[in-house]
Amino acid sequence: FLPSYTYDELNFNGVAIKDVTFDKLVTYFDYFDSDVSNVLPMQSADKYFDYAVFARQRRLNHKPFSYTMNVMSDYTGKAIIRTFVGPKFDRFFDLQFYKKYFFEIDQYLVDFTAGKNTFVRNSREFYWSVKDRTMYTDLYKKIMLGYNGQEKFALDMSEAHCGFPDRLILPKGWTSGMPMQFYFIITPYTTKTYEQGYQYDKTFTCGIASGMRFYDSLPLGYPFDRVINFSYFYTKNMYFKDVFIYHSDEMKMNQTY
């Protein structure tokens, strides 16, 4: 297996995360109606709007949240922030076991200036997650209304081809608050060279085997993908944040926050 990352492979000289603050983290179950109208045989497409069949299910969801990160930097330029969520553990050395349960939920490119830098990130902006796709019934209605001149039709209604469901970013919390941890690491940004003319667009491809969906050449899960050497692992460009995830028993019906 690959050796532990060296200190130089983990450290970002001159960059130190000072603190991270979170909004209240709340999960809940909502009722979601999935359109299954296509199961009905239709003699004519004109009758399509006369019938609708929906399948209702309970789904885990969460309220959108933001966090604020303050970073002191002697570095000026671009960098990448990676965000993980994982279980709370008591002893730092227990991370060797629990690291496999830390899940990368976001990575994004930022610009640093010398001095204090403040970054605010909303869960709706997370790189790996996507929203629900538009149901076929809604899409068909928009097309027909536009065709009949009753509504202006948007020429670009592109949606993500694939990704992790946004509603599942947080695990189900507890009414009293479930202890969890967020982990952050900031790494230098280095440009990469790809085939000329190829660009990653999640609206029509997952980017498998292209490398275009990653900002750099570091593997998914870095730095938890190798055995940890605790003699130098915890560097100033890393930060563990203890949080509580609460769960609301109130049922919500396809509500958007």
UniProtKB/TrEMBL annotation:
Domain of life the protein comes from: Eukaryota
GO MF: nutrient reservoir activity
Biological processes, Gene Ontology terms: energy homeostasis
A single GO cellular-component term on record: extracellular space
Domain Hemocyanin C-terminal: 4-247
InterPro entries linked to this entry: Hemocyanin/hexamerin (IPR013788), Hemocyanin_C (IPR005203), Hemocyanin_C_sf (IPR037020), Ig_E-set (IPR014756)
Protein name stated in the entry: Hemocyanin_C domain-containing protein
